[in-house]
Every structure is written in structure tokens, then in C-alpha cells.
Design brief:
Shape: globular
Structural class: alpha/beta
CATH superfamily of the domain at 109-366: Enolase-like C-terminal domain
CATH architecture of the domain at 109-366: Alpha-Beta Barrel
Number of strands: 17
Distance between the termini: 46 Å
Mean pLDDT: 95
């Protein structure tokens, strides 16, 4: 039996927001890597991994499910973003080791390929509809079939200048205010323009990022129905998912939800009641490959598809872990794209290749990629890594926070 002898953490990216786990074993040269990245709480996750390590050192690496369950209950309280990320990093590394011992890619251990490559969707945006149209055309010409369309950043199209917002005289210092009605006007107009100019070949998605009040969210889903979206993402916040029942009753716009989910009880009703069409849990925030394959199986039984959340703050290891689940799952729908710099790609020999709207892995054992620790250490910028990072704050005209 191969035993766990230690767990190392590797913090990298220039701003220090990537964190990787390296699970060491008593077999010479045998180790596994996993992603435990958290853009906003990287140092917290690193400390949590150090706290968990004594629990599993000395255990048999083959007992992946048992180790997952042991960590899950180790602190009494469970289903939180920190513990899930700790579990995910260790879980990915253990699957990496199992694949290396078996001499097989992880997707083979999960049942084998169900497709030849993993479709990815692009992120098009522009500060104006014309700029957005040009960006959509660029991705379409590159080969992407599914393209996310955004006017500027999240909430784009729904912001009013402070001078036109008609806020209170004692308003807090902010240069713009989010307005539901402005958004409800701008986004349907955006898709009307794109369909007129680009036709029905491209498949479009849009990310609301939970900016709307629930009743307005229902209205937006209805207004976008004529434009046949591939999906409408994060229409509602996790606190308001009950409103998806009203969305389902009133329109057929496909719904994608889940990147903020950390607790199975948040997404189970949405899947089993068929209230969403795509589940978008991040593999690392859901707890790793072990729970992700269970979610994918659940989706298969209820006709829901997976669209694992792999946004720009993610990393190549988590991307590869998601790809292995995608390749082996018949519930796969699409995966979010990632773009990394050449210097970042150099850290990961064997990383996935993104080409023409598809992600391609390799047939190497385990996850199929490694991490160059020396280059990872060199990439880290101590000054940037010492800073704290927070989610951007959008506010309404009276100063109230818009919850993402």
C-alpha cells in the first residue's frame, strides 16, 4: 500500500492567487498535484491545508472516497468554501496518483471517454454594442460555436452615471449606480442587434451575475426568449433560487447556475426538479473530482448538463481536473474557457490546449500535467502577493450593495 508522507503547498501567479497542493508518497518519485486556488482567500486556504495535513499523513493513497469523507467531517462544521477548496486540492492530487499508479489518465478510471474533445465557450465583451459585435465575430472566426456576450463588465448596460442616477443628496461616493430597468432595456436590445448582424449560427450566453431583483430576473428571462440563448447564467443569487420555479413556469430560456454553490442542498433541488439546464459548480469549490463525478451522474438522470465554472481567476490544474470529468460524462454540456499567459503555461508541462473552441488534453497517466516548482516560485511577485483582493462592489442609486 502506498502511503501519504506529506503535503506541500505551492503559491504562485504574479499576484499570488494560485495555490496548488502536492501530495507526497513513500514511493520514490510518486506524487500528485491538485488545485486549491482561491482568488480572494489564498492565504486562508494555505493555512487550512497545513491544519488538515496531519489528519491524512500515513493513510493509504488509494482510499480516495474514505479520505474525502474523513476531511469532510473533520472540523464538525462542513460545506464551506474554505474546506471544500482544501478537499478539492487533496482529492485531485489523489486521483492524479491513482492514475499514475494505474498507468492511465483519470478519465479512464472514471469510465473512459464519451467524446473526443471538450467544447469551450468564449467570453466576448465590449463597452459598446459595436465593440461587442466585433469581439463576437473574432471568436466566431476562431471556431467557437458558443460565445458569452457582455456589455463591459458584469452589470454592463445597467449602470447610470451618478449625474443621471437621481440618487439622494447625501449619496455615498460612487461614480455609477446599477439600475434594473436600464439593464432590462439594454440586454434585450444587445441580443436583438447581435441576431440581426450575426444571424442564428452562433450560440449565445449571457451572465447576469445575480444583479437583478428576483421579479426583474424573471422578466429578463422572458424578454430574452426570442433570441434563443444557449443559456442565461446566474440569473438569481443562491439565496433566491426558489424563484427559478417562476422562471420555468413563464419561459423556456435555458438557465445555468452554480458558481457560488458550496453546499449540495443548494443545487440538489434545482437539478432534481429540473429547474436549471446547466450546473456551473467550480470543481475546486465543490470539493474536487470525487463529488463532481457524482453531480455529473445526478445531472445525467435528470436531463441537466454540466458547464463547470472555470473563469479567468482559475488555473490550469483545476481546468484539467474538470476536463477529465467532462470527457467521461454523458451529462457534459460545455466548459468555460480560460486564457493564461505564456509564462503561466510554462509552469505546467502537459497543460490542456485551447484551440478553435475546444480543449484538448493528453493521454498521460493521472491528470496528465505537472508543475515546475522553480518556475512557480519565480513567477510570484512578493509585492503583489502581499495585497488583499476583494470582489468589486456594485451599488444601487441609494448606495445599497448589489449582491453578486
Amino acid at each position: 500500500m502506498t502511503k501519504i508522507t506529506g503535503i506541500e503547498t505551492i503559491r504562485t501567479r504574479a499576484n499570488g492567487t494560485w495555490l496548488f497542493v502536492k501530495v507526497l508518497t513513500d514511493q520514490p518519485g510518486l506524487y500528485g498535484i491538485g488545485s486549491a486556488s482561491d482568488h480572494y482567500r489564498c492565504k486562508v486556504i494555505e493555512t487550512a491545508i497545513e491544519t488538515i495535513a496531519p489528519l491524512i499523513i500515513g493513510r493509504d493513497v488509494s482510499r480516495i472516497e474514505d479520505i474525502w469523507q474523513s476531511i469532510y467531517t473533520s472540523g464538525y462544521w462542513r460545506n464551506d468554501a474554505t474546506l471544500n477548496t482544501v478537499q478539492a486540492g487533496i482529492d485531485m492530487a489523489l486521483w492524479d496518483i491513482k492514475g499514475k499508479e494505474a498507468g492511465m489518465p483519470v478519465y479512464q478510471l472514471l469510465g473512459g471517454k464519451t467524446r473526443s474533445a471538450v467544447a469551450a465557450y468564449a467570453h466576448a465583451q465590449g463597452d459598446s454594442i459595436t465593440e461587442l459585435e466585433d469581439d463576437v465575430r473574432r471568436y466566431w472566426e476562431e471556431g467557437y460555436t458558443v460565445i458569452r456576450c457582455q456589455l463591459g463588465n458584469y452589470g454592463g448596460g445597467g449602470f447610470l452615471d451618478r449625474a443621471n442616477a437621481r440618487g439622494p443628496k447625501n449619496h455615498w461616493p460612487q461614480d455609477k449606480a446599477f439600475d434594473d430597468d436600464a439593464y432590462l432595456q439594454a440586454i434585450p436590445e444587445m441580443f436583438a442587434h447581435l441576431r440581426e448582424k450575426l444571424g442564428w449560427g452562433p450560440k449565445f450566453t449571457h451572465d447576469v451575475h445575480e444583479h437583478l431583483a428576483p421579479h426583474n430576473a424573471v422578466q429578463l428571462a422572458k424578454l430574452l426568449e426570442p433570441y434563443r440563448l444557449y443559456f442565461l447564467e446566474d440569473l438569481l443569487s443562491p439565496e433566491q433560487v426558489q424563484w427559478y420555479r417562476l422562471v420555468r413556469q413563464q419561459c423556456a430560456t435555458p438557465q445555468a447556475m452554480g458558481e457560488l454553490f458550496i453546499n449540495p442542498h443548494e443545487y440538489l433541488p434545482l437539478i432534481t426538479e429540473r429547474l436549471i439546464d446547466f450546473v456551473r459548480i467550480r470543481i475546486s469549490k465543490g470539493g474536487g473530482i470525487t463529488p463532481a463525478r457524482k453531480v455529473a451522474t445526478l445531472c445525467e438522470w435528470f436531463g441537466v448538463q454540466t458547464a463547470w465554472q472555470e473563469g479567468g481567476d482559475n488555473d490550469p490544474v483545476n481546468q484539467m481536473a474538470a476536463m477529465h470529468v467532462d470527457l467521461a460524462s454523458t451529462a457534459f454540456g460545455i466548459q468555460e474557457e480560460n486564457h493564461f499567459t505564456p509564462e503561466e503555461y510554462e509552469l505546467f508541462p502537459g497543460h490542456a490546449i485551447l484551440d478553435g473552441g475546444y480543449l484538448y488534453g493528453n493521454d498521460q497517466p493521472g491528470l496528465g500535467l505537472d508543475i515546475d516548482v522553480a518556475k512557480a516560485n519565480a513567477l510570484l511577485d512578493p509585492d503583489k502577493a502581499s495585497k488583499s483582493y476583494f470582489m468589486a462592489e456594485d451599488r444601487r442609486r441609494d448606495g445599497a450593495i448589489v449582491r453578486p
